[in-house]
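Quick start: what a row looks like.
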Amino acid sequence: MAIQKPRGTQDFLPAVIGNWRYIEAAIRKLCAAYGFEEIRTPIFEDTGLFLRGIGETTDVVQKEMYSFPTGDKKEQTYTLRPENTASAVRAYLENKVYGQESLTKWFYMGPMFRHDKPQAGRYRQFHQFGVEVLGTQAPSADADVILMALQLFSDLGLKDLSVQVNSVGCPNCRPAYRDKLIAFFEPKKDELCEDCQSRLYKNPMRILDCKEESCKALSVGAPEIHENLCEECATHFEQVKTLLTAADVNYTVNPRLVRGLDYYTKTAFEVQYAPLGSQSAIAGGGRYDGLVEELDGPHTPAVGFAMGIERVLLALEKQGLLPEPEVEPSVFVVALGEAAQLEGFKIVHALRHDYIKASMVGENKSMKSQLKHANKTHAKYVIILGDDELARGEAILRYMETSEQETVPLAEVKARITSLVKG
């Protein structure tokens, strides 16, 4: 056909929606246990929110955002949200939540958009589950969100995951570290990729996160952030690690883990599943103590994480953990003749009124044709109506798994089906 779905997007047909519901149910159960409440923010926001919140030197802002004119004000643009933390903070400020409660715990699920090269587990419209904890600087909050992510993956049965943690410092200790990185990379500037050359003086820490093999080689021996943390950041990181160890989390400290967004401070972490290849991170996050202030709010320490649902689905598929489709007990009415069609219509809608899955062809087709349709719908029970049955005030009830049949008074059909389906 001439018109197809945009590159980097997917159609989710009924055959796979069950997998999504399975993950979403696990998410909602977990969030309830951890005391998180759901929010929903607009799919598009003022572009300035992401320029200020995410950082102008990030790949997301420079290369990946879908922006378009608002149609309201000249030169003003909206952007399809590339992530949801900035949107959550905007909602937190705009609705003055900070004045209503000292600690806010939110979660969200929904589509995000980035103009990126489509590949396994990475799409231009993708879906994230994330949590945000606003109003606490306690290291236990950092450990909580890491443990929350790991508990979700454990609930889903995922194995062979690795946890990487780091501290990326704060505005007090990063300037000195920034100067050391510039001094280290400056002699190699011409050998860096074009992106890293532009990052060198704006945000040299992003060079450590570059995926180009040449830049990875050039960064060997670069100064490590841990040698330059201020006392507050160093103490915070040690406390987070102590809590993770107490919770029996097997983690690795990765000094190169800086994440791709500028708002991170102190703790950064990722949960990775190596078989996914270059896009091995299935969840990641960290602390962002300055983001609320950056967006003109009061000082509000915060921490959170986000999880790519498509990547988790890939990991579940690779480990053979996707659930078997559940077939709900259903009823099909085979109606032969106009009078039977009318009576069948009444039975179907009476059953649906009680939330029992029921259907019929709605056309006067042959018995064979209608039974064939019943099989396609995986009907467990079939009610057969014809002129003879109507004349006797009866219906035939067929059990499709055994092909056994019984005659039921027409007036008792609904009650009989209800007892079978609902027990």
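That is the whole record. The two ends are 48 Å apart (CA to CA). The mean pLDDT is 92.
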